[in-house]
Specification:
The chain is mostly helical and 201 residues long. 60% of the residues lie in helices and 4% in strands. The protein has seven helices and two strands.
């Protein structure tokens, strides 16, 4: 009888532990809210812009709005891809102390435009999608996929991690970072539009 009960107890304990590590409904709702908010901020900022406005640069070294959008689309793919790679590691609750920021602080850090960071080469805009329309379509499709993942995943995101230049995040925070990154560049787009020489049409 004991030989039968011990494996059964082990299975029950493992099942209980796994269920504890799923995202809560509040976590899912918060991430979806942020992902939807940053998407809508971007689409609203782009609404009605002409080709001249999309391609305007305040200086030869600066990005145009179209290039900002390409960077956002590239990042949407690359950041989520990095997160998926980190999901292959074992969940490890013992590393929680490495995560120094709470969720709100992660969003605050990434949306703070006073802290300028040079983009790494894989994230630089190069016209890889072929046109602005295709770039925006790619972003919208990938964002929809990522939101579906947040709504349905059973992965333990809180006990897997990514090490970024400003610190260690858990993978749930990486999703928030991805959304905040979009909002950061919406602010950049707004700055471009406020330039004195920005085309009126």
């Amino acid at each position: 009888m004991k030989k039968f009960l011990l494996p059964l107890v082990a299975v029950l304990l493992l099942s209980f532990t796994a269920s504890e590590n799923k995202l809560t409904e509040a976590e899912r709702d918060f991430a979806i809210f942020e992902l939807n908010k940053s998407r809508e901020l971007l689409l609203t900022a782009l609404d009605g812009l002409t080709e001249a406005q999309l391609n305007y640069k305040s200086s030869p070294e600066s990005w145009s709005i179209a290039e900002c959008v390409e960077h956002i689309a590239i990042s949407e793919n690359n950041i989520f891809g990095m997160m998926q790679g980190n999901l292959k590691s074992e969940a490890d609750a013992s590393r929680r102390a490495e995560v120094k920021m709470n969720d709100e602080q992660v969003l605050k850090v990434i949306t703070d435009r006073s802290n300028k960071v040079k983009t790494q080469e894989p994230f630089e805009p190069t016209g890889k999608f072929g046109s602005f329309e295709k770039t925006l379509k790619n972003f919208k499709e990938k964002r929809a996929d990522n939101m579906k993942y947040v709504l349905t995943t059973e992965d333990d995101l809180r006990n897997r991690y990514a090490v970024l230049p400003f610190g260690t995040l858990d993978l749930y925070q990486v999703i928030l970072f991805m959304s905040g990154h979009t909002e950061r560049h919406v602010l950049q787009i707004q700055e471009i539009m406020e330039d004195a020489d920005f085309p009126q049409e």
